[in-house]
Amino acid sequence: MAKVPKILGVIGPKGGVGKTTISANLAVALTRAGADVVAMDLDLGSANLHVVFGIKTVRHTLDDFLVNKVASLDEVVLETAVPGLRLIAGGNVPGIASLPYQRKVKLLRHLRKLDCDFLLLDLAAGVANNVVDFALIAQKSLLVTTPDVPSLMSLYSFLKTSVYRRLQLLFKSSGDAELQALLENAGDAEAHPELKTMADFSRQAALLNPELAERGARILARFDPLILVNRVRTASDMKAGQAISNLMDQFLGLHRGEILSIHEDAAVGMAAARMQPVLLGAPNCAFARDMQRLVQALGVRS
Amino acid sequence: MSPSAVIFSSDQVRGNITSRKLRHEGFRTTLFDRVASAVDEAAASGTRVFIFDTAGAIADELRFLSRFYDSWPDDLELLVVLGDQPPEFHGPPRRGEVQVLPDPLDLDRVAALAKQAYSGPADAAPRAEENDLESDLKDFLRLR
User: Fold this and answer.
1) A152: which chain B residues are within 8 Å (Cβ-Cβ)?
2) A145-180: per-residue pLDDT in tens?
3) Are strands A85-88 and A77-79 parallel, antiparallel or unpaired?
4) Which residue of A25, A158, A183, A288 sits 20 to 30 Å from the alpha carbon of B65, by its own alpha carbon?
């Protein structure tokens, strides 16, 4: 019987925070815990996950599937040198990042049919709807940030966009124009300070449509991301996760979520130069230990 | 002013669930997996509660705890030691109290003790509720 993959979305709203490095090494760490893993490069138009594995020749990429050059997603799955790990490389077809709706639906349908324990999606940077939609279908979102203010701001913006996008889809599909309008107002807190926090919005929404407002609240209550603060060097850096978590709690009504610190480690740069996942060349380094903790935090036991 | 707690745990899973429990109880928490950073923060932040998880802690980290106990920051009211390898402390604490809670992890008990530590008046005024980074983020994101 085919497995149904658990989908993990690795998201780094600000580019250059180490998302792809974490995706590749998390994939390796999961296989070491005995899982079958497919890592998929969804950084459409700017793909490089295969490079981390030193794979130079890619016969078919995800782009070939998206533009109908190949019929099945299985045809673009690559074997890797890591037992239990397969890869779907992305390509660089111009314009592919703006995925039309029908192609997105087709891809989502095929993703769920992949035979593996974990499907790990390495998503693009930014807050475009394509990225947010793929993040929303993931059963677990891993939000990667570095401890600096610009990166944390991007992370917060991504979370806010995701919350609004999810509620917008709910209210639209339910045909409630009043709640859609209220949500739009809440998105502009300067013009509508009475809707500054999600708690403010929920109170107002409950007056208009208590049942739908409650459904929206339940959806948000289930959102349980894992925040990965990458390249942590100092005690001050370690406060970054808590700072963003406090803002999520206070303004977005997201009360769940764990924080993991991933420490700065010279082994990461050396592995990148060798085009090899860190866990293969330096399995006992601090970064590798952090990846093992991440696997544990995902509830995976060897 | 919301109550706060500083937590040290080298086991990030235990640390995170402890932190989350306290946050659900209205605490601001700061979680560390490096002991030096944790004791620095416990001393500098003005918190009344420091939680030290000995699960997975190495001898050096336990020695840090002993030194912390001897120095005992002015604002601290409660030191909670979690896990099955509590270090030996010499004499009673300078002030406040120490609670040792062996495994299994009893989060309700931890939360109850932490709340108790904030039920009485503090000797010194607590420091800022939010750290500088959170304050900067609120400014840049226009969340004020």
Assistant:
1) 133, 137
2) 999 999 999 999 999 999 999 999 999 999 999 999
3) antiparallel
4) A288
Q: What is the mean pLDDT of residues A270-276?
A: 93
B6 vs chain A: nearest CA distance in angstroms?
Answer: 11
Q: Which CATH number fits domain A6-143+265-297: 1.50.10.10, 2.170.120.12, 3.40.50.300, 3.40.50.620?
A: 3.40.50.300
| Chain A residues lying within 8 Å of B30, measured CB to CB | 238-239, 242
CB contact under 8 A, B140 and A261: no
Write the CA distances from A190 to A201, A247, B139, B141, integer angstroms. 14, 17, 13, 11
Distance of alpha carbon A91 from alpha carbon A277, whole angstroms: 20
Q: What is the pLDDT of residue A17?
A: 96
Q: What percent of chain B has a predicted confidence (pLDDT) above 70?
A: 91
What is the phi/psi pair of residue A10, to 5°? -100, 115
**Model pLDDT for residues A212-264, shown as the tens digit of each residue:** 999 999 898 888 889 999 998 887 788 888 889 889 988 998 877 788 889 89
Q: Where are the domains of chain A?
A: 6-143+265-297, 146-264
Interface test with A, best of B2, B6, B10, B12 (most A CBs within 10 A): B12
Q: Cβ–Cβ contacts within 10 Å for residue A206, how many?
A: 15
Is A255 exposed, middle or buried (CB count within 10 Å of its CB: 0-12, 13-18, 19+)? middle
Q: What pTM does this model have? A: 0.73
Q: Which two tokens stand for residue B41?
A: 């923060």
Cβ atoms of residues A253 and A197 within 8 Å? yes
Q: Which residues of B touch A297 (CB under 8 A)?
A: 12-13, 16
Judged by a CB distance cut-off of 8 A, whether residue A286 touches chain B is no
**Domain limits of chain B?**
4-140
**Residue of chain B whose Cα is closest to the Cα of A256:** B20
CATH architecture of B4-140: 3-Layer(aba) Sandwich (3.40)
